[in-house]
Design goal:
The chain is mainly β. The protein has helices at residues 2-21, 26-33, 39-47; strands at 51-61, 67-77, 88-92, 95-96, 102-111, 117-127, 130-132, 145-161, 166-182, 201-213, 224-234, 244-256, 263-276, 308-319, 326-337, 349-361, 366-374, 379-385. The protein has an 18-stranded antiparallel sheet that branches.
Length: 389
């Protein structure tokens, strides 16, 4: 019985490698340009590597709006048998918009052997001038004002498997906004937070996390469920300016219609809410400020902010070429933030768009994603490594 299970695991691993070998990526295209002819030998060397690197230096649109130069480096690897262990990844994406904004984010999602442990980290240092419109879902454009600030984020969570795909754990999260300057004379339209917008703030506390994840590859999920429930308790005893708690619930589902090529429908929804206390202004839920800054394509990051945010998105993904080198997506999203005084979701903001996919690394499944998102008030291009969700 043990022998049969071992053979099935080996067959599954070999099947994954064989399937990737039959595909084509940008590295294969570059290889043909440089005249490397022994494809079988070259693919054998690549498939046997334990670590797969993807690097993309390019101009790009950034979450806060405008253009920037970004260098995205991704390392994907397995810390156990691919048949029983999810793909781990580490991403470093520094960028500047040559207008005073500098961002240095280092993120990781590490799966240990047989998915017994999962470690997730998010560390950032940001010099981040950004526009803000105040609180609520119907803030007028004339409220637009520039906030200059520096931001240090240190998040770390470790989870232990307690079921087949169910994990439980926690960690510690630290967010510090400093050197905050609000444009003088700006009409921010928020008497509630007017006295605190320009002050430094620190939020720090422990996190309790419940996770269900049946995906094999977070960079390009081919199917499965993702469910994360995270409760954060910011306390003055841990260095926080105030005692306040937040809830973050993230749910994703992927439906695949073909085993031979990319043809799937993906859904994503999350609820982000302050449950107790008064959070600092820059820590309040805001569109585009989800964990990886991928939500709200078609809107400027930070356009709507309040004490709770509800988000929905769907995306259809399909290959254009049989070898998987080129693909396309169609997407639509909808979000709302609460009215601060009533805590009700009154105004809903739809957006949509389309994009192209270029296979950067066929063994890690990593795509270059180029999307165009639009709404009634904004449109822009989005360039990234890895799927939006």
């Amino acid at each position: 019985m043990i022998f049969n299970q071992y053979m099935q695991a080996q067959d599954s691993t070999l099947s994954q490698i064989d399937s990737a070998t039959r595909q084509k990526d940008i590295i294969d295209v570059a290889k043909s340009w440089f005249g490397i002819k022994d494809k079988q030998k070259y693919d054998s060397v690549r498939s046997n590597k334990k670590f797969h690197f993807s690097i993309l230096p390019a101009p790009a649109a950034v979450p806060g709006g405008g253009a920037a130069f970004a260098t995205s480096t991704n390392m994907a690897f397995y810390l156990g048998p691919p048949s029983t262990t999810a793909l781990s990844n580490i991403t470093f994406t520094p960028y500047t918009n040559f207008g005073g904004r500098f961002v240095f984010p280092l993120r990781s999602n590490i799966w240990f052997k047989n998915n017994n442990w999962n470690m997730v980290t998010d560390m950032r240092y940001m010099i981040y001038p950004q526009y803000s419109w105040g609180l609520g879902g119907n803030t007028p454009e004339e409220n637009k004002s520039l906030i200059n600030y520096d931001y240090l984020r240190l998040h770390g969570n470790i989870l232990r498997r307690i079921g087949r795909r169910l994990l439980f754990g926690g960690g510690f999260e630290f967010d510090h906004h400093f050197s905050i300057e609000l444009d003088s004379g700006a009409n921010h339209g928020n008497t509630i937070y007017e006295d605190s917008i320009g002050k430094n703030s620190t939020s720090s506390g422990f996190v309790v996390n419940l996770l269900y994840d049946s995906r094999k590859n977070a960079l390009n999920p081919q199917g499965g469920w993702y469910f994360s429930l995270e409760t954060r308790f910011n306390q003055t005893v841990f260095g926080s300016d105030k005692n306040w708690n937040q809830l973050y619930v993230d749910v994703r589902k992927y439906f695949s219609f073909s085993r031979k090529r990319q043809d799937k429908l993906a859904f994503w929804t999350y609820l982000w809410s302050v449950m107790y206390g008064r959070a600092p202004y820059l820590d309040l839920p805001s569109i585009g400020w989800d964990t990886y800054g991928r939500s709200g394509r078609g809107y400027l990051q930070n356009r709507y902010r309040s004490n709770a945010l509800l988000y929905f998105e769907s995306e259809y993904r399909r290959d254009i070429t049989r070898d998987g080198l080129l693909g396309f997506v169609l997407f639509a999203n909808l979000h709302s933030v609460t009215e601060y005084r009533t805590s009700t979701f009154t105004y809903w903001h739809p957006a949509g768009g389309f994009g192209l996919r270029f296979k950067l690394n066929k063994y890690s499944g990593t795509n270059i994603t180029l999307d165009y998102g639009f709404s009634k008030t904004y449109n822009g291009l989005y360039l990234n490594i890895g799927e939006t969700f």
